[in-house]
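Re: duplicated header lines in exported structure tokens

Our pipeline writes sequence and tokens for each protein into one text file. With two proteins the header for the second block appears twice in some exports. Here is an export where it did not happen, for reference. First protein block:
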Amino acid sequence: MLFPRDAWWTALFQASPARLDACCDVTTPSEWPGPAEATTVDQDLDACRTRAAGAVLVDDEDEFALHRVRYGYPPDVVEQAAAAADWLTAALRDGAEPFRGRFLTWLDVVAQWHSGPGGGCA
């Protein structure tokens, strides 16, 4: 899971055989109340990429539209969330980092950790 600083999104990277290799939530920028704790507010929109075809989809636009009205999202939040969804869609489609391949190194590290003695458990 990636929680970039000062960005309106988080990313979950998944190893094979998961259908999606990357799934991003549009969120408020991450806050770090402690060294091992990040908090965000999910803005409903998701941008995901399929592993097999590399197709990019934006999900839950209807939910975002409904909640925008129901909860009275401020205009700047709506603008930032829409801009983040647009950026994520292009970055996933075009293979911009961190979605090109850098994440694969980290997935390998996690896989090795989980396959080592104790299976990653303390």
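Second protein block, exported in the same file:
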Amino acid sequence: MTQRSNVLPSAIPMTVEDAREILAKPLLALCSENGPSAVARAIGGCEDKTVRDARDEKSTLRLDLAANLLLLDGTAFDGFLARVGRRSVPMEATCSTDALPAMTGAVHKLVMATSGNSVDGPGLSRCELFDSEADLRQAFDAIGALLGRIDRLKAGLAA
């Protein structure tokens, strides 16, 4: 089990302006996609103007409304977390950060199945394909996680 440190991270305390700026990014994306009225309804029935003002960094959303943004966008708090060197992950996320074993396992299985010495010959048989399914799915998930990380880095979000 990983031991947690009791030492607080060296971060400059957040100001109201910092919080508004950080929250404006996900609000802008959500409002562009759904409109401020739909966002306002989805986060707790506040007025459209409340969402527009927060999006435009004129005011700050109440904590309960801001937290409800996570219902629309699971990465809405990534800016806050990144500021203190943290990130969030879905509860069902696996704890594997190394994609190489999954990918090499799948490649190895496919190479063996398509070799001339394979029981079913050089072509990939239905049985060999089904036998490779678990390895291929693990490799697919690992590659998807890496691509998601690339997308978050490109978007300027915590990776």
